[in-house]
Amino acid sequence: MEGTGDIAIGQVVKSGAGRDKGNIFLILGIIDYKYVYIVDGEMRKISNPKKKKINHLIIYNTVFIEFQDKIKNGEKINNAYVRKLLEPFKKML
């Protein structure tokens, strides 16, 4: 993967490198063609997202449209909501 062209806000990703390797996250924001902000609602909360390189992520095809819509509309999102969305993916680990 070379850039953020295939990435969307609300997309499920897995960390492939770093201390958080193997953890599941949601894309909270796209910084530029190399970096995104990721959150999981536990260690990386909405108030303190992790800046991560795209090429250190394993991209899943799942995109939560309702999460994407809430971000675009400026609605308040809490960490419990993020944890609830990611729960089925964490059970697969």
TrEMBL record:
GO terms for cellular component: ribonucleoprotein complex; ribosome. InterPro entries: Rib_uL2_dom2, Ribosomal_eL14_KOW, Translation_prot_SH3-like_sf. SUPFAM superfamilies: Translation proteins SH3-like domain (SSF50104). Keywords: Ribonucleoprotein, Ribosomal protein. This is RNA-binding protein. It comes from Acidilutibacter cellobiosedens.
